[in-house]
Amino acid sequence: MNPLTTVKQPDYIHGYRVLKHIGSGAASEIYCVCKPDSSEIFALKHVLLEERDKDDRFLVQAENEVRVSKKLTHPSIRRIYSVEKFRPKGWARTEVSVLMELVDGQSMDKLFDSDVLSKMQIFREVADALAHMNDKGFVHADMKPTNVLVTEAGQVKVIDLGQAHPIGKSKERIQGTPGYIAPEQAELEPLTERTDVYNFGATMYWMLTRKEVPTAAAGGRGGQSASIPPPAHTVARGIPHELSELISVSVDPNQYARWKNMHTVVRKLDRMIEELQQKRAG
């Protein structure tokens, strides 16, 4: 059981006043907090770490989020401001707090029933955010529907930069989510802009069909092989053929057969959105 569920909600965490509890993760609690001497409001993820390897990985990923976030300025990427760790005297556990931009929205997977145009407009903002990350020298490397938040006003925020990685470099261990992981991630090859193209293509595929792309197994070499899924428009009704083709090229297991970068994807989505809007207006 998460130890935070057995104690009273704290009044303060690392100097920030807790306003309310807003969510729970696998091993964390998320609060809305503010600085006592100002009106600034933030989200704060609070975790109690045991002395275990997987907990060490959480801290490494949190610190990575802060480093990468400081390089980024795109309005559709959630800002991560700081990570603090503290071990109370006599405790065997370490407290870790990640201070983040507060985003009042729901994850994109909850919007599966939205119309195609609305989804395409969200896709366009996500693609533009990923293009910005790539321009700054990083791949997100874990794009999936739950890593995009959408506010009631339609503002899009890409979240979870914990697995972000420098372009052109390989990871030391396999990281990724089955159904979205690119073959080069599963094979520990250097990651490129095309890695994000694949993750993003798999994300669009799920959002339009509610089916995962048959990705390479994220458990080591020689596992399940990746393959191109049936075109999206043959799986679900109402999907434009051009959008279906965009996705199929994005999730080609051969990275050199994919779109070159996210800027190409943005341009194609822009054109498709404009054409669909004109068609509906006419």
Describe the overall structure:
With 282 residues, this protein is α+β, with helices and mostly antiparallel strands. The chain folds into 2 domains: 3-100, Phosphorylase Kinase, domain 1, CATH 3.30.200; 105-281, Transferase(Phosphotransferase), domain 1, CATH 1.10.510.10. Helix content is 33%, strand content 20%. It is built from 7 helices and 11 strands. Strands 1-2-3-4-6-5 form a 6-stranded antiparallel β-sheet, covered by helices on one side. α2 (116-135) packs antiparallel against α4. The model is unreliable at 1-7 and 218-223 (pLDDT under 50).
Chart the SSEs and their pairings:
Layout (H helix, E strand, L loop, with lengths): L11 E2 L2 E9 L3 E7 L6 E9 L3 H17 L10 E7 L7 E7 L4 E3 L8 H20 L2 E2 L8 E4 L4 E3 L6 E2 L16 H4 L6 H17 L22 H4 L5 H10 L11 H20 L1
Antiparallel strand pairs: 1-2, 2-3, 3-4, 4-6, 5-6, 7-9, 8-11, 9-10
Strand content: 15-25%
CATH topology assignment of the largest domain: Transferase(Phosphotransferase), domain 1
CATH architecture of the largest domain: Orthogonal Bundle
Q: Count the domains.
A: 2
Structural class: alpha+beta
**What is the string of helix and strand elements?**
EEEEHEEEHEEEEHHHHH
CATH C-level of the largest domain = Mainly Alpha
* Share in helix: 25-40%
Low-confidence stretches are 1-7, 218-223
Tell the overall outline. Answer: globular
For the record, what is the CATH homologous superfamily label of the largest domain?
Answer: Transferase(Phosphotransferase) domain 1
The tally of strands reads: 11
